[in-house]
């Protein structure tokens, strides 16, 4: 039996029209790989290929708009379409924060506060219109639009918060990863044993997996002189992309049988 995470015991998890996958360990594995790859892929396109932040942001945003259009034409959850958009929106969310910080001089603290506010407003508007924030009921176009907007802000917020802790607070990549991982585990324990609301727990963990993945992505890809392990952005991105593709293929095959 598939283990459902952050699903209320009284709520049936299966909704054929839902456009979001079941929240299983595989979901969190791909999510963590996707956010890690989002960090390293953005660095690769921006720095290694020399495209620069603005051209990279325009290019990736255009691709994301196209893949989201495909996602919205589907009547149900399709693994490859959904996860392709997660990977791309992870890259765009990273670039959004990087543009604000590097090109416009906005501080990481300001970005963290601003994206927290925008995410809160998105949740408020979503709940006001639909009466629920459940990811088990993303089964209409408006709910799906709110969902993807919230996902974009979680990635931008996670990037800002992760960089704030790792760089500005000088905690380092490994310590930051351990910190965010510990908070995630405490939230999971709170949901599992202390009755923490499932929807609240899901969204908090979703936000925190972004800086968790980014911390370990930077740890692997950044040069040793900067506190990393020196694997580089190409190898690190390919490593995590391989895990994503393999897991999505397995999920797709299971849906077809």
TrEMBL record:
Xref: InterPro entries: DUF347
List where the protein spans the membrane.
57-74, 80-97, 104-126, 146-166, 178-206, 226-253
Keyword Transmembrane helix assigned to the entry: answer is: yes
One Pfam family per UniProt: DUF347
Record's keyword terms, sorted: Membrane, Plasmid, Transmembrane, Transmembrane helix
This chain belongs to the protein called Membrane-anchored protein
């Amino acid at each position: 039996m598939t283990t459902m995470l952050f699903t209320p015991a009284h709520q049936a998890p299966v909704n054929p029209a839902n456009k979001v996958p079941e929240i299983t360990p595989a979901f969190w594995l791909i999510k963590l790989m996707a956010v890690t790859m989002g960090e390293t892929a953005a660095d690769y396109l921006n720095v290694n290929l020399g495209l620069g932040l603005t051209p990279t942001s325009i290019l990736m945003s255009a691709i994301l708009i196209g893949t989201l259009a495909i996602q919205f034409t589907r009547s149900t959850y399709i693994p490859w379409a959904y996860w392709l958009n997660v990977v791309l929106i992870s890259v765009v969310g990273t670039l959004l924060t990087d543009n604000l910080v590097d090109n416009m001089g906005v501080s990481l603290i300001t970005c963290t506060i601003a994206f927290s506010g925008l995410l809160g407003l998105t949740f408020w508007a979503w709940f006001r219109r639909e009466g629920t924030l459940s990811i088990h009921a993303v089964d209409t176009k408006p709910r799906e639009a709110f969902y993807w907007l919230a996902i974009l802000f979680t990635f931008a917020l996670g990037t800002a918060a992760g960089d704030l802790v790792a760089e500005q607070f000088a905690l380092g990549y490994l310590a930051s990863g351990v910190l965010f991982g510990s908070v995630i585990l405490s939230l999971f324990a709170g949901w599992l044993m202390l009755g923490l609301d499932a929807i609240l727990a899901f969204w908090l963990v979703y936000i925190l997996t972004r800086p968790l993945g980014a911390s370990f992505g930077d740890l692997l890809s950044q040069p040793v002189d900067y506190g990393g392990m020196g694997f580089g952005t190409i190898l690190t991105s390919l490593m995590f992309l391989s895990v994503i593709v393999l897991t999505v293929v397995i999920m797709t095959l299971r849906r077809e049988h």
